[in-house]
Design goal:
By secondary structure, the chain is an alpha+beta fold. It has two domains: about 170 residues, 2-Layer Sandwich (60s Ribosomal Protein L30, Chain: A); about 100 residues, NADH Oxidase (3-Layer(aba) Sandwich), CATH 3.40.109. The protein has a five-stranded mixed beta sheet with strand order 1-12-2-8-9. A four-stranded antiparallel beta sheet has the order 13-14-16-15, with helices on one face. A hairpin with a 2-residue loop joins strand 15 and strand 16. Helix 7 packs across helix 8. The radius of gyration is 26 Å and the shape is elongated. The mean pLDDT is about 90.
């Protein structure tokens, strides 16, 4: 359905919720916050609420000392990883569904030396909250459980729908025409993501306002007995993801070097970059008895025969690319010398 509201849109931050603890009734906190603002829920309203509130109420906290282990546990597949002074930073497909940094494991706005994990089934959490809000108020509303993530090709972060209930999540315009009568073949608006991002304008990360009332798009809200497809329906699976791996990880995977330690965020010296190149090139085991030596701004390759030397040379040229380097190949009596040049970043 096309979502064009003839009514003004209101987005109101819900103050007064306060710190949330394990076992708290989140729906009751939302209703009480509305009453403090002399407001109430109406049919067709949408509540957008931070996943952090949902996780706190569900007791999804673990000691911060186990953060890296928790990130790995909450990960389903690695997209990219880099070493930083604080440890390894990973972009992964999280157990909760979306591709996110650190699987959504977070320590911001959390009391004590703990980190929070995401709800294991965010759509189910949204459905439960919707049902409880209906029980408390009688209103048929939509619920969006929000979280924050970065985006490829764009600086900064924005909120998106981690979970959703009682809402059309997608406005699929494919097969229709635009205002000029042209066929639309790819346009499908992620409505719940747009609601989450708009709600974050009044929620914020530092203001202590974890929820918002979104009013004006009642046509998106489904009947009480229809939970909708949920936000997980918007997650691309790995098979359909053109960007399922970072560029470094893709080359390393093709070379059988996926187990090599992730590269650092700061590339380091040329010698360090060439040492990593050699490690990646040889990572699948000795390449037909090949060897790679770093000699100044070049790599010296040796192998048992010409075929092996050719295989090793091609692996080195591919591995160089992951360090934003290219190689000029020169045959020498005892092997091959690959002279290195910088690629533009």
């Amino acid at each position: 359905m096309s979502a064009h509201s003839p009514h003004p849109v209101q987005i109101v931050g819900l103050t007064g919720i306060g710190e949330v603890h394990a076992g708290d009734d989140v729906a009751r906190l939302v209703v009480d916050a509305l009453h403090l603002q002399r407001a109430s829920l109406n049919d067709g309203d949408v509540i957008a609420i931070s996943s952090k509130v949902v996780s706190k109420a569900a007791g999804l906290s673990v000691p911060a000392t186990d953060r890296d282990e928790v990130v790995l546990r909450e990960s389903r597949r690695l997209v990219a990883a880099r070493r930083t002074p604080a440890g390894v930073s990973r972009v992964v497909q999280s157990a909760a569904g979306p591709v996110m940094a650190a699987a959504g494991v977070d320590a911001s706005n959390v009391e004590g030396d703990v980190v929070l994990t995401l709800p294991p089934d965010p759509d189910a959490a949204a459905r439960d909250l919707r049902a409880r809000l209906h029980e408390l108020t009688g209103a048929v509303v939509g619920v969006v459980v929000t979280d924050t993530a970065g985006r490829p090709w764009r600086a900064g972060q924005t909120d998106f729908a981690l979970g959703a209930a009682g809402l059309d999540v997608l406005d699929d315009l494919r097969g229709t025409v635009d205002a000029q009568g042209r066929d639309l073949s790819v346009t499908a608006r992620a409505l719940v993501d747009e609601i989450a991002a708009a709600a974050d304008l009044v929620k914020g990360k530092t203001s202590g306002v974890p929820a918002a009332l979104f009013r004006g798009f009642a046509e998106l809200v489904l009947p009480a007995d229809d939970p909708g497809p949920g936000a997980r329906s918007l997650v691309r699976d790995a098979a359909g993801d053109w960007f399922r791996l970072g560029h470094v990880e893709a080359v390393r995977a093709a070379l059988g070097a996926g187990a090599v330690e992730p590269p650092p965020v700061t590339p380091g010296t040329l010698t360090e970059r060439l040492e990593r190149t050699a490690e990646v090139a040889l990572a699948a085991g000795p390449v037909l008895d090949g060897k790679v030596f770093v000699k100044g701004p070049a790599l010296h390759l040796e192998a048992a025969d010409d075929f092996s030397l050719g295989v090793l040379t091609q692996r080195v040229l591919s591995a160089l690319w992951t360090e934003f380097l290219a190689g000029l190949v020169h045959r020498v009596p005892d092997g091959v010398v690959v002279r290195v040049v910088e690629l533009p970043r």
